[in-house]
Design goal:
The chain is of the alpha/beta class. The protein contains 21 helices and 19 strands. It has a 7-stranded mixed β-sheet with strand order 3-2-1-4-5-7-6, sandwiched between helices. The protein has a 7-stranded mixed β-sheet with strand order 9-15-14-13-12-10-11, with helices on both faces. It has a 3-stranded antiparallel β-sheet with strand order 16-19-18. Bound molecules: pyridoxal-5'-phosphate.
Length: about 625
Amino acid sequence: MRQRKVRNLEEKYKAYEDLLVYEPAEMRGSWRKLAGERGGCASLYLEIGCGKGRFISEMAESKPECFFVGVEGNRSVMLRAMEKVREKELRNVVFIPDFIVDLTDWFTAGEADGIYLNFSDPLPKNYSAKKRLTHRSKLKQYFRVLRPDGVVTFKTDNTGLFNFTLREIYASDLAILEMTRDLHHCEYSEGNIMTEYEAKFSTLGENIKRVVIGRKERISNMGNEFAAYNGRVIPAEDKIFGISGRAKKAIAEKGRENVINATIGALLDDEGNLIVLSSVDAAVKALRPAEYAEYAPIAGTPGFRSAIQKAAFGDYTPNGYVGVVASPGGTGSLRNAIANYTCPGDKILTHDWHWTTYKNIAMEQFRDEETFDMFDDSGSFNLADFEYKVKKLLRIQDRLLIILNTPANNPTGYSLSDEDWDGVVRILNSMPEEKKIALVVDVAYIDFAGDEKKVRSFLPKLEDLNENILPMLAYSASKTFTFYGCRCAATICIAKSEAVRDEFVRVMSFSARASWSNCPRGPQTVIDRIYSDPALLAKVDEERKGFRNFLLQRGRAFEEEAAKVGLRMVPFRAGFFCSVPCEDPDAVSKKLEEMDAFVVPFTKGVRVSVASISEAKCRKLPAMIKAALDAE
Ligand code: PLP
């Protein structure tokens, strides 16, 4: 939008001499001194392209302890900004009436605390990319003049510029501290100060995108040795492995009977030994060398692909086009579903109680995550929030990948009921048909969730989904066949057309080839053998059923004791885990560590692996958690 030139501009500028810095290079190194003298301020912020000054004047008004420097090359526009500052009688703002060429000409290293870029010119032509204010060369300058913990906050309504900026952040090896594609309807909306442009365009229904950029050291204590972090958050240690490492150390020092290690996502016997189905063990030991040593086809051996379908579907015969592609664990399945059914910068959607690896898989591939509240106040599956978040994301994305981890959700043990599923199908079918939705049901714990038939009753409902929705199962052999370390699973789609199914097999195979190539042949041969031999299958099923009941007994024991001591749990049905909601899960987990009880803190509570502790410990732990909560 072209701004009309103000007449007698120079004359008018004279009235604002005290707000103007005409020679910013001369101020290099002295800005903080000016901030102290003028406003008694200890921190310094810049807005590059401050326009008519609504943002900078309101920021300065709300933060009198901070000093602001507005930079604007369009002097007519900047006059409006100075008028606002004068009107508010602010002492903590000055303006540079110029375009930036190299910010390091005006500021010394580490001189500024933060930089705001609001609705910068998108300069859409490719040849203008280098001039964009978020081009990597500019980001480099900004971080030269910022203090070590300084951040750049960038807001725009322009999707092209936003996506470009994300790529530039990755290329600059900087970190994304916060990101949203709908600022006005997200957790960061509170306290947001709008620019004139933002106020106008958001009332027209435009989504405002915002990203806060920092040095990667802010989010990782790994330092900057050699690796390219590409905007990813890589913690010093995996949280779960870290806690379970400390638990193992405590066991070595104090004895197994004195320590509760409820961190492990594997089924252990009462003495802490891994339970392996003996029928599966025998089948593994019977493998001939070529049956495990030879490469398997990328999508899996034909026998495995047919067998894993039977394992996943049970008695159900889908009315659709089924595609199967092998993956090393359900993890691989989720990775490649995200790679092929979302775009970089997209958000995937899942429930707030979820396996934390989802976020890492998304982030690893330059996607982000949004969550919906899994439960409402009455403890029911929160279809209203599911609908709200699906709608919200589809307003800003053309495609959406949703992960539902059911039955026997990790970390809560919840399974969606048939009514919950009817709601999910109804909501997804009400979405615009031009939007593409991939619905990934992570069924990692399905065979430990209850009666085989009942837990699969949701499968026929997937056939009712509209054509623009592609249902997939991430079916893992890790738990079902106690194949955790053998890395064996498959992604299974039920498509409405042959073309979509064939494409699924092609793209998922391509991603497999490009990431791990083929999956181990040995476990595929074993699963093929189990499903080709009814007697062996019956034995495997029978053995698993025994362990499932034994696991359920532990879960019920925990539930019973929790009720006795008045410990609130997240709705639990079955599976490896149950969860206890709390305000500060890290603190509760720490407190429990002091009592030699180890659980995993999630965002909204602590997770207890009933799969890895004896029934006696399941009975003991609720009172300890209650004590840790009461000590908060
Ligand atoms: N999904 C959930 C919810 C999980 O908890 C796990 C493993 O712990 C997986 C998927 C994938 O496991 P794997 O890659 O071993 O199949």
